[in-house]
Amino acid sequence: MERDIEQxxxxxxxxxxxxxxxxxxxxxxxNGLRADHGEExxxxxxxxxxxxxxxxxxxxxxxxxxxxxxxxPPPGAFNLGNTxxxxxxxxxERQALYGQLVNSYKWTDKIREYSALAGNxxxxxxxxxxxKTFSTTKRRKTQxxxxxxxxxxxxxxxxxxxxxxxxxxxxxxxxxSPNPIIxxxxxxxxxxxxxxxxxxxxxxxxKALSETHDPWTExxxxxxxxxxxxxxAAMCHFHSPMMPELAVRSFMHWFHSYNTLFNAPCxxxxxxxLGNLPPTWRDLRTLEPYHEECK
Length: 295
Known about the structure:
Elements (H helix, E strand, L loop, with lengths): L1 H30 L10 H28 L27 H27 L27 H14 L3 E9 L2 E8 L3 E8 L2 E8 L14 H17 L5 H13 L24 E2 L6 E2 L5
Antiparallel strand pairs: 1-2, 2-3, 3-4, 5-6
Helix pairs in contact: 1-2, 5-6
C-alpha cells in the first residue's frame, strides 16, 4: 500500500513538473523577442531558447508516461458505501448532493487537521493566571486598564512627547474627555491627527497642513493616504498593553522619521520618486525610507 502511494505521489509530481514547463513554453512564446536576447542574432537566440524548453517538455512527458506506467491499477470499483446511491437520484435537486458531500468531507477533514495543529501549539503555552497558584483567601490584585486612566497621566505623556521632539508641534483638545485628540505637525511636511483611548492610540490620520482637522476623513492626497495606512500598521506593531507609554513613544519616534518624506531617497532603488510617489514607508527598526514596491 505504501509503495502504491509513493508511486502515485511520484506520478503527480511528474505531472506538476510537466505543467510548469509547458507554462514556461507558452510564456516564452507570448513574450517573443526580449531585451535580454540582445540586438545581434536575437531571432536565433529565441529559437534556441524555445528548442531547449520544448526538449525539456519532451523529457518531462516521458517521465510522466513512465511514472503512470508504474502505477498499479485498482482491482475493482472503489467502495463508496451508501454514497453510491446518490448517483442514482433522478431528481434534479438531489443530483448535486454527491459533489457537495465530497466538498463537505474535505472541509471537515481540513478542520480536523488544523484543529490538531492548533491544539498542539496551544498545549505548549500555559494560559494559567498567576493568582490561581495562591490561596483563595488572599485578595486579588485589581487589574489596571490602559483605557481608564487619570487625565493627568495622559497629559504628562503628551508633555514628555512634546519635549522629546522639539521640531514637532503638538496641540491637544478633548472633545471626548478625558480621551484627547492631538494634532502633531511635523515641520512644514505634514500633520497627524491622533486619537487616544486612555494611554493607547486608537486612530491615526495623516493630512497636509492645509487640510481640515477632522480625524474621520482621509486626506485628498494619495501620498498622505499611503502614510496613513503605514501609520495604522505601525500602530498595531508598537501596541503593547503591558507598556503603553513605551508603545506611544516608540510610535512617535517612528513617525518622526517622516520629516524627510519629500527629500530622502529610497534606500533600495535610490530614487526619490517611484510611480509619482516619494518613499512612503519607514522601516520599523532602522527608520530607513522605502517605496511601497521596494520594502
